[in-house]
C-alpha cells in the first residue's frame, strides 16, 4: 500500500504538537514506518514459502504454518501503524473545525493558531490516550498470538492431517528476531513518549489554572 497519506497526516499534526509530540512523530516516521517499508516487509515477504516441515504430507505444512502464525507479523504491524496514527485525525478534524469557525465569523477566535488550548486540548489528550491504548493492545496481541516476543528456529507440530509430530523450520529466525525486538522496543518508546506528553499537558494545564485562581484572589 502507499504510506503517503499516513506521512501527510503525521506531518499535518506536527505543528500542533509539543516537543515530545514531535519526537513521537519522528520515531513513528523514521524508526517504524521507514524501517517497515525498507526492511521488515522484505524479511517476511516469503514467510509461508520458506516455512518447511520434515514431511510432505498434503496439507500438513499449511495447517502447521497457520497454527504457529495465525496472523502475519507484517500485516499486524501495518495495522498497528495505521491504528496508532488514526487518533491524530481527531486533532486534524478539530483544527479544521476551528479554522472553519474563524472563516464563518470572519475574525481570529484564537490568539495563536498552533496553540493547544480549550477544546483542542481535550481532543489532543483523547488522541494521546487512544494512541497509548492501541499500542498496548497490539503488544498484548503480539504476545498472546506468538507466545512471547520470540521467533523459534524449530517448532513441533502434531495437528491433523500430520500423521505424527513433525519438525517445522522457520527461515531466517535470527534476523526476524532482531527486527521483532526492534519494533517492540520502538512501540514501548512510543508508549513512554505518549504518557510523558499526556503528563506534561495535564501538568501545564493544572499550573495555568492554578495561576489564574491566584491572580483572581489577589484582584
TrEMBL record:
TM region(s), chain numbering: 21-39, 77-97, 118-143, 177-203
Keyword Membrane: yes
Record-annotated Connexin cysteine-rich domain positions: 134-201
Keyword Repeat found: no
Connexin N-terminal domain boundaries: 42-75
A Pfam family recorded for this sequence: Connexin
GO biological process, one term: cell-cell signaling
Any one cellular-component term (Gene Ontology): connexin complex
Sorted UniProt keywords: Cell junction, Cell membrane, Gap junction, Membrane, Transmembrane, Transmembrane helix
Compartment(s) of residence: Cell junction, Gap junction; Cell membrane
GO molecular function, one term: gap junction channel activity
Membrane topology qualifier: Multi-pass membrane protein
Record family assignment: Belongs to the connexin family.
Primary role: One gap junction consists of a cluster of closely packed pairs of transmembrane channels, the connexons, through which materials of low MW diffuse from one cell to a neighboring cell.
Protein name: Gap junction protein
Organism the protein comes from: Steatornis caripensis
Lineage: Eukaryota, Metazoa, Chordata, Craniata, Vertebrata
Amino acid at each position: 500500500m502507499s504510506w503517503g497519506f499516513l506521512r501527510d497526516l503525521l506531518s499535518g499534526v506536527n505543528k500542533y504538537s509539543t516537543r515530545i509530540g514531535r519526537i513521537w512523530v519522528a520515531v513513528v516516521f523514521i524508526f517504524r514506518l521507514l524501517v517497515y517499508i525498507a526492511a521488515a516487509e522484505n524479511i517476511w515477504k516469503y514467510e509461508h514459502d520458506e516455512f518447511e516441515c520434515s514431511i510432505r504430507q498434503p496439507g500438513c505444512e499449511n495447517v502447521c504454518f497457520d497454527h504457529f502464525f495465525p496472523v502475519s507479523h507484517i500485516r499486524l504491524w501495518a495495522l498497528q501503524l495505521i491504528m496508532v496514527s488514526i487518533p491524530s485525525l481527531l486533532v486534524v478534524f478539530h483544527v479544521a473545525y476551528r479554522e472553519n469557525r474563524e472563516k464563518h465569523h470572519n475574525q481570529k477566535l484564537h490568539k495563536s493558531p498552533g496553540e493547544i488550548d480549550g477544546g483542542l486540548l481535550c481532543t489532543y489528550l483523547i488522541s494521546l490516550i487512544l494512541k497509548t491504548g492501541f499500542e498496548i493492545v497490539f503488544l498484548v496481541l503480539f504476545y498472546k498470538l506468538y507466545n512471547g516476543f520470540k521467533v523459534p528456529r524449530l517448532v513441533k507440530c502434531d495437528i491433523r492431517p500430520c500423521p505424527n509430530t513433525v519438525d517445522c523450520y522457520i527461515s531466517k529466525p535470527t534476523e526476524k528476531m532482531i527486527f521483532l525486538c526492534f519494533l517492540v522496543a520502538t512501540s514501548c518508546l512510543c508508549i513512554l513518549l505518549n504518557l510523558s506528553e499526556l503528563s506534561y499537558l495535564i501538568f501545564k494545564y493544572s499550573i495555568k489554572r492554578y495561576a489564574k485562581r491566584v491572580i483572581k484572589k489577589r484582584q
